[in-house]
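**Backbone geometry record:**
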Amino acid sequence: MRFTFLLPSDNLTGGARVVAVYARELMALGHDVLVVTCKADSPGWRQRLRAPFAKKAPETPKGHIAVSGVPHKVMARYGAIAAGDVPDADVIIATWWETAVWMHAMPAAKGKKVHLIQGYEVWFGPAFLPKVHAALRLPNIKIAISRDLKETIDKAVPGLAISLVANAVDLEQFQAPERVRNPLPQVGFIYALAAIKGADVCAQACVLARKRLPGLRVLAFGTDQPSAALPLPPQTQFFHRPEQNALREHYAACDVWLFGSRLDSFGLPILEAMACRTPVIGVPVGAAPDLIAGGGGVLVPGESPQAMSDAIIKLCTQPVQGWHAMSDSAYATAHGYSWADATRKLVEKITALN
């Protein structure tokens, strides 16, 4: 079949990574794929989300679509993607509420219309809520990426008949051999200026944990440069925009990975860390409750650096056999979420539904 994906932009977000992986997996199954993205705009919506921490928008790096090497068309102009911008296809997939609106205006020749819902995208405030809800109500096949997201939207906009195909993890990219716990424990988290990502909660938890565990080491990486308004703990080993093939080394270097997002539709770093045999301390956001339920980590209340700190101390000081059991459970959980399986499920849903 011929698939077209519509993206508002190519970037280094989890949503763009998901589209890049689906495109690659669909091609491996013999399908034709094209990803169409808007012309890069500055400042974009993701830069606006970084307030109040960011003073200026950073330069735009090459995104996941470009890095993946899948067929990619970048619009030469700003604004909506129109029917004339995309080829005729069997399936067209919107990946953001605005792209769903653009897709709705396109003729049937552009393909069966699918809305891959990657978030409850009302982050900019009440003024956007009716627009997002109207986009969600448009007639098309709707597929959410996590149970939590599906339930959130079902509650906000009842009666949409949303299907579920959970995100997964690249088990070739994210892998690590069995290992022992570090003699000097190390925790890690993703640093991001966007308040919804909760890097401040993770950083505060590390500072608190060091009061009881002075030798605790901290590792972080992210696409944003550290800001004085959102400081990293002292002596943090920080990697700015690391190469994709280096990510597994960073995950595997840690004894515990922290997930503190205030708003997240799934939480891909949870699975990435688990695939590298690193237990996760996470808040009940996105897919965290489902993923951590398998024993590969600890769930803590949101907005509580103290609770996260307590969990850090527990995991880093428990008997080594306990840490190994948790590491094995994390690895087993991740291996239940392959992108090959997710892609087959996606195709099955699209084929079966109208």
